[in-house]
Fold this sequence. Notes:
The protein is an alpha/beta fold. The chain has 30 helices and 24 strands. A seven-stranded parallel β-sheet has the order 13-14-12-15-16-11-19. The protein has a six-stranded parallel β-sheet with strand order 3-2-6-7-1-8, with helices on both faces. A five-stranded antiparallel β-sheet has the order 23-22-21-20-24, with no helix packed on it. Helix 4 crosses helix 10. Magnesium ion binds next to helix 2. It is an enzyme of class 5 (isomerase). It comes from Cyclobacterium jeungdonense. One of its GO terms (molecular function) is exodeoxyribonuclease V activity.
Amino acid sequence: MDYLASLNPPQREAVERTEGPVMIIAGAGSGKTRVLTYRIAHLIHARKVDPFQILSLTFTNKAASEMKQRIEKLIGLDARNTWMGTFHSVFAKILRVEGQKLGYPSNFTIYDNDDSKSLIRSIVREMKLDDKVYKANTVLSRISGAKNRLISWETYLNDPYITADDEAAMKPKVGEIYKNYQKRLFRSGAMDFDDLLFNTNVLFRDHPDVLNKYQQRFRYVMVDEFQDTNLSQYLITKKLAAVHQNICVVGDDAQSIYAFRGADIQNILNYEKDYPDLFIVKLEQNYRSTKNIVETANSIIAKNKSQLQKNVWTQNDKGDLIELMKASSDNEEGRMVATTIFEEKNNKKLRNSDFAILYRTNSQSRSMEEALRKLGISYRIVGGLSFYQRREIKDLMGYFRYVVNQEDEEAFKRVINYPKRGIGASSVEKMMVAAYEHDIALWEVISNSSSFLSGRAANAVGDFCTMIRSFKIEAERKDAFEAATNIAKQSGLLRELYEDKTIEGLNRYENVQELLNAIKEYVDNPENEDKSLGAFLQEIALLTDEDQNKDSQDTVTLMTIHASKGLEFKYVFVVGMEEDLFPSQMMMQSREDLEEERRLFYVASTRAMEKLYLSYALTRYRYGRLLNCEPSRFLEEIDPAFVKVNKKISSALSSSFRDTESSQGFVGLKKPATRNTTAKVHTPSPDFKPSNTHNLTEGMKVEHPKFGFGLVKAIETEGVNRKAHIHFEHFGDKTLLLSFAKLRIV
Ligand code: ATP
Ligand code: MG
């Protein structure tokens, strides 16, 4: 096998030096991730290391699965058995097995940000504190900051100034909240995201036998994007590698962009102190981008004082100059970007997926989305309000969570009276207080509702309890899909959504169906051994924002710069290059902050392979007001030799947008076929009446009130459920449950 031949000499050295500590410090696009991938392949193939003994930690789960696929291509199926994933997903798995040693149930729930904030709000209320001073967001980020530095609530309470800043003085009760928050999480059998790492540290500290077991298991440890690890993550890797010392970390100090979340660049700078035998590899040849892009990026990062010296260069062509676009408003900026994509795509025969639009904050996607939609260009947003953050999805997931873990307080609050079953807020409050005051499990209170509540409320809670019990029995006996479908129906949630006939209601109903589809897919996937509802929940809880996208469609990618780390696209637009937006006003307390913003700009620019566009607007709506904007200082910092100003956007083209509201033709542009995100909601025929679908069979043509016309491809019967697989002209393939779908046989 000749995989080593496709590496340059320092890359090859990094791959072949498998024993002892290795640090690869290298510029963007120089093949760091590639080296890690090949190194794993090499360990398994040439050094005959058991794949189970290799642990690799990546920035997203998606990055891990891509890496696995590549390794599989290099050496075959053995690749599947390596341990690979984000810190959170890998150690959540380990805590499932070992968490009982810390007093957690093995089916512990993972709280997301919303759950955590809701819990903090309850605590602030109960402590009778001012919720304007103790805002959930701020309190949570302080607690998170403490956990990432392994400061427990006990330590925090003893020394509130441990964080050594002004905020500590202004919010003297944070320590107290932190304590209550942890106690409540523990009672709920739940961990938040930071706990997954914090508790792993506690586990390794207090249970040397467990630590030893994993030290033996993971003979080789590798970490990608090492510049963004926080102390908590850093110590985990250090402890794991303490025996064999076969640790390989890969990073670029110039791309450290998570200091605000506790990432500590000192982890790189001090690494030699931790490992005196450290072997350092520098990679300087960039394979990703054109000369113009590489040199532009170099000129950007050169302005930062604190950095390791690197000389990134490339043998690639010079390529196009960086193009700067100036727009009069944010909407015009969107139009310019969309038009440019449209033109470049046609002129150069590119695909949508060759383009990415990167921005500093999620809210900037709006003007981009509007413009792309008007030109019929399919796109997807990575991050933002993702599927699993939608209310109806969280509601149903709330049921799943509660069925799996009856102490999950946040799930309980979500489902106890939704759909409405006559259990008012005061009854809920009474039960929670009862559990707290008697120091008994919430489930015990609920199971004995008549002792705590009276009359109707007690009965309603009794019925709820019976229902949850039956779900629980099902969830234990059946696979996730069967259990979930039953819960969706029997809880009344599906019916509640079905009866809401507004467009939004239909959408929500569709989303729930989509969730059930996802569960089916999960159950059908042979790679998932554990097909229980609990296992599915864990998988979802660990999805990072960056993981949530569908690769199968050809779409332009929109995302924050933070989410774009490690990725590459032929054409990249960095939009909103304005003072106070980028660099962000909120992050400009010090020179260090400015340098982090500049690194962010470096990350953004180095995502581009062939062409980089930078744009800014002269006015922009922010915080509900129209603001005048100034071009970003970063634009002035770029060496002008690499930049040209775009004058090409013809006014005819931009003005054509104005009459597209009615989706009429475009001046000079042929409107491309619409799909998915761009497809219009179908208007049902005037005589639309759902048919009895009892006799529906393959090959029949049907009309759906929202998806329009389609062809039945297959009918499937599963238990009491009959489902139709239908191909809709404008919406592609859908699977609909016939007991709910409104279909007219045409
Ligand atoms: P980032 O800092 O953005 O994470 P990276 O250093 O991890 O970048 P990779 O993503 O591994 O870089 O590589 C960048 C691109 O260069 C990829 O498309 C990769 O396949 C290609 N590449 C890296 N090394 C070589 C090589 N020796 N020969 C050919 N292509 C290479
Ligand atoms: Mg990489």
